[in-house]
């Protein structure tokens, strides 16, 4: 996949030393999934999202979520025009190929829910009319897991629409020294479009055709069922979550140049695709603990031969 490698290399010009995260994020893009980047401020989440859009030449919009943000600020609004004597719809930032929902948990649940239809169906209903969103349409949302003052935790229905939850992490010491010496003002200027949106759409169509053997589908479903049986879990992985995990595994296989999935594709993506979909009886369960619970479910199911 020489074309994909060029994109990954281009993104890495802006976010150095994070090849693993870049590959995971682009896997989600190939699988037409949405991504939740959960990490402390200032580690390059916004830069990463911008670099992905720039490498593909896609239309990028950024919305800073705040407590006073309204759904119309995201979706758009109809304004009366004296000239036409009718209402004219003005598109909001959701009408883009890559939408960065920055600090999404700082807005009210009402505003967060404005993205539900867009993320599920790639269209929005406004003033009684359904409007299609551009293709592709990918939401990359960020949130700070540490600071909780003035935030609204994402409801389960919203979390379930994110195909992956990823963390960027701090840069390596060498990369931080390079940033101190050269600054960060021009890193995005180094990223240019090395592919196109039609090419991305073509790859996304091929991902759907990646073969998943019945035994592998049974394996994945058994793991999902394990999450529903644990006494510490109030709500396990949903059917939507299972199908999303399958699609992400197909995308991982495609990224590796294969037209079939292996158990490793499902295994390696399990924590990223499933951990955020669990609802626990103990609300204080951490992200690390939820990852451990998913790993325990993985080890409880025999891998197909």
How are the elements arranged and paired?
Layout: H1 2-12, H2 19-30, E1 35-38, H3 45-56, E2 60-64, H4 71-75, E3 76-81, E4 86-91, E5 98-102, H5 109-112, H6 116-121, E6 123-126, E7 129-132, E8 138-143, H7 156-159, E9 164-166, H8 173-182, H9 197-208, H10 214-229, E10 233-235, H11 239-255, H12 263-274, E11 279-280, H13 287-299
Parallel strand pairs: 1-8, 1-9, 2-5, 5-8
Antiparallel strand pairs: 3-4, 6-7, 10-11
Helix pairs in contact: 1-3, 2-11, 9-11, 10-13, 11-12, 12-13
Q: Percentage of helical residues? A: 40-55%
Shape-level CATH architecture of the largest domain? 3-Layer(aba) Sandwich
Largest sheet: 5 strands, parallel
Order of helices and strands: HHEHEHEEEHHEEEHEHHHEHHEH
The overall pLDDT, averaged over residues, is: 89
The CATH topology of the largest domain corresponds to Rossmann fold
The parts where pLDDT drops under 50 for at least 5 residues are: none
N- to C-terminal distance: 27 Å
Shape: globular
Q: Number of DSSP helices?
A: 13
The CATH fourth-level homologous superfamily of the largest domain: P-loop containing nucleotide triphosphate hydrolases
The spatial strand order of the largest sheet comes to 2-5-8-1-9
Radius of gyration over all CA atoms, rounded = 20 Å
Number of domains: 2
The proportion of strand residues reads 15-25%
User: According to CATH, what is the class of the largest domain?
Assistant: Alpha Beta
Work out the number of β strands. 11
Structural class by helix and strand composition: alpha/beta
């Amino acid at each position: 996949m020489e074309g994909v490698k060029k994109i990954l290399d281009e993104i890495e010009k802006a976010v150095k030393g994070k090849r693993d995260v870049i590959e995971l994020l682009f896997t989600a893009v190939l699988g037409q999934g949405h991504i939740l980047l959960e990490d402390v401020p200032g580690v390059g989440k916004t830069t990463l999202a911008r670099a992905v859009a720039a490498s593909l030449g896609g239309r990028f919009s950024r919305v800073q979520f705040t407590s006073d943000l309204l759904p119309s600020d995201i979706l758009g609004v109809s304004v009366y025009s004296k000239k036409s004597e009718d209402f004219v719809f003005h598109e909001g930032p959701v009408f883009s190929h890559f939408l960065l929902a920055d600090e999404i948990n700082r807005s009210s649940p009402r505003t967060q829910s404005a993205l539900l239809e867009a993320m599920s169906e790639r269209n929005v209903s406004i003033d009684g009319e359904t409007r299609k969103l551009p293709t592709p349409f990918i939401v990359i949302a960020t949130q700070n897991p540490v600071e909780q003052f003035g935030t609204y935790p994402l409801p389960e229905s919203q979390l379930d629409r994110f195909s992956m939850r990823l963390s960027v992490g701090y840069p390596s010491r060498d990369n931080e020294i390079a940033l101190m010496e050269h600054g960060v003002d021009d890193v995005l200027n180094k990223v240019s479009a090395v592919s196109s949106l039609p090419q991305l759409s073509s790859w996304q169509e091929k991902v759907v055709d990646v073969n998943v053997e019945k035994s592998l589908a049974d394996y994945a479903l058994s793991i999902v069922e394990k999450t529903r049986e644990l006494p510490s879990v109030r709500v396990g992985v949903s059917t939507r979550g299972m199908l999303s995990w399958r699609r992400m595994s197909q995308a991982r296989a495609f990224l590796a140049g294969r037209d079939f999935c292996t158990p490793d594709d499902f295994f390696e993506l399990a924590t990223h695709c499933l951990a955020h979909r669990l609802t626990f009886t103990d609300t204080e369960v951490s992200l690390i603990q939820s990852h451990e619970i998913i790993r325990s479910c993985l080890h409880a199911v025999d891998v197909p031969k």
